[in-house]
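User
Class, as today's exercise, I want you to study this protein, comparing sequence with structure tokens, and judge whether sequence predicts the tokens.
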Amino acid sequence: MGPAPLADPQLTNDGLVGYRRVSGPLGDTIVPDLATALPVPADGGKTYRFRLRTGIKYSNGVLVKPEDFRRAIERVLHHQPR
């Protein structure tokens, strides 16, 4: 795959999910970040469907689209180390 485009979720500090931002044991809890909720695994754990919060924009004002995440995830999964 080619170089990462400028509008790429992998280049942001936010993800679909993240850790709760508190200290102690509760900080180990995974919570939605750009997703509206945690996904429920389907197809024997092979499929996870995330729904994005509406109105998410990159710093340049471009709306974040589901395809942006899909492209970034597929690039990571298909990456061949040199």
Summary: The helical segments are 66-78. The first strand starts at residue 17 and ends at 19. The longest helix spans residues 66-78. Residues 5 and 63 are 14 Å apart (CA to CA).
